[in-house]
């Protein structure tokens, strides 16, 4: 499969009055065309920062560390739209308005934002907002854009006569479907979906995710599915990347993550969520809480909560180990623990 996105050593830190928040530190992964990658981890571990870091839609206090690469279809988006910071050595600042970057955002990489339920402007009709997005980026007439919205509504399962409704006239599930229509409107190569269904009830969530998977296959779009719910990615994702405290701690195929778990954090995360097959098992909350990213622990960031931690874990940052081709884990004891861990 052809490689679409290659992230190398991505580090994004937020400047705050007391220092830095090390939100994303040295994250690397690749995605092929048409593939879905799940990005999972507890709240605050840097998933949204990683996702938005790709298109650099980040708050103004975000800085990208020199050496970070986001290569999308051959172009390094970091080099494209950031410049060396004069204030902070070793960091790059994001340019607020960048004409080249505009060609990538929405048109080639679209996003479903966390909390998308409120993403539509309440004073304009939903359909008009999608039409507007198409007109801004593509050289088409208003009539053609409207026709495209009609097709998209059919695709995502909203009745055509709802195009001229205002956001408040939509149910939560409908708004979510409309967001998916918006994300598909410009035929992107990649969709970054940040907790796209978290606010919905389980039945609607299931249905919408199923539809997303079908659409994605049909349109051959790649997707990064960001969620804290591992059962969601189990069904949807080819590959899964597990984040903890700004680090990518394990990545592999969905099968490898679930059946050949190679990081104690992944094991803990799998135990904390209900099984996808509905098997009865005791859920086990992960003891303690994630570290303050303004002051991450020395050594392995998971060590203070890890039941397998030894002295070295508290002292030295673990290396990234390739346990089998494409299956990597950031743990000092990966080889010893491999085969012993398991969430199910
Ligand atoms: N603008 C900001 N300034 C300072 N710190 C920030 C800023 N935005 C996010 N952070 C911090 O960066 C870290 C990563 O946040 P991020 O939103 O990427 O996590 P997340 O994994 O998406 O969490 P959630 O599951 O809750 O959405 C957190 O510690 C968060 O408090
Ligand atoms: Mg988030």
Describe it for me?
By secondary structure, the protein is of the alpha+beta class. It contains 12 helices and 15 strands. An 8-stranded mixed beta sheet has the order 9-10-11-3-12-13-15-14, sandwiched between helices. It is globular, with a radius of gyration of 21 Å. Adenosine-5'-triphosphate binds at residues 14, 16, 21, 23, 41, 43-49, 59, 61, 114, 228, 293.
Summarize the structure.
This protein has helices at residues 47-55, 77-81, 99-102, 126-137, 142-156, 172-184, 202-219, 230-236, 254-259, 264-271, 311-315, 334-337, and strands at residues 3-16, 19-32, 36-40, 62-65, 69-72, 75-76, 82-84, 91-94, 109-112, 190-194, 222-227, 239-244, 247-253, 320-324, 327-330. With 344 residues, the protein is of the alpha+beta class.
């Amino acid at each position: 499969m052809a490689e679409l996105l290659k992230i190398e050593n991505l580090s994004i830190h937020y400047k705050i009055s007391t220092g830095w928040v090390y939100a994303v530190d040295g994250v690397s992964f690749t995605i092929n065309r048409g593939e879905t990658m799940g990005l999972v981890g507890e709240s605050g571990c840097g998933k949204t920062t990683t996702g938005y870091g790709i298109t650099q839609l980040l708050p103004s206090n975000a800085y990208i560390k020199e050496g970070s690469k986001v290569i999308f279809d051959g172009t390094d988006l970091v080099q494209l739209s950031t410049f060396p910071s004069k204030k902070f050595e070793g960091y790059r600042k994001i340019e607020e308005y960048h004409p080249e970057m505009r060609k990538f955002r929405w048109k080639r990489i679209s996003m479903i934002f966390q909390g998308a339920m409120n993403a539509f402007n309440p004073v304009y009709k939903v359909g008009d907002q999608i039409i507007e997005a198409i007109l801004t980026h593509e050289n088409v007439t208003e009539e053609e854009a409207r026709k495209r919205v009609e097709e998209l509504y059919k695709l995502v399962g909203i009745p055509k006569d709802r195009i001229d409704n205002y956001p408040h006239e939509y149910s939560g599930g409908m708004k979510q479907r409309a967001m998916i229509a918006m994300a598909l409107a410009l035929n992107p190569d990649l969709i970054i979906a940040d907790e796209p269904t978290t606010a919905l009830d389980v039945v609607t969530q299931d249905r919408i995710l199923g539809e997303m998977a079908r659409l994605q296959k049909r349109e051959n779009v790649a997707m990064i599915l960001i969620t804290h719910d591992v059962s969601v990615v189990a069904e949807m994702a080819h590959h899964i990347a597990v984040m903890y405290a700004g680090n990518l701690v394990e990545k592999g195929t969905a099968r490898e993550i679930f059946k050949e778990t190679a990081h104690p954090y992944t094991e803990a995360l799998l135990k904390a969520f209900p099984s996808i097959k509905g098997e009865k098992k005791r859920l086990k909350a992960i003891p303690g809480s994630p570290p303050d990213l303004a002051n991450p622990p020395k050594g392995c960031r998971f060590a203070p909560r890890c039941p397998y931690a030894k002295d070295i874990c508290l002292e030295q940052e673990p290396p990234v180990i390739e346990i089998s081709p494409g299956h990597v884990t950031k743990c000092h004891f990966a080889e010893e623990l491999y085969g012993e861990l398991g969430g199910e």
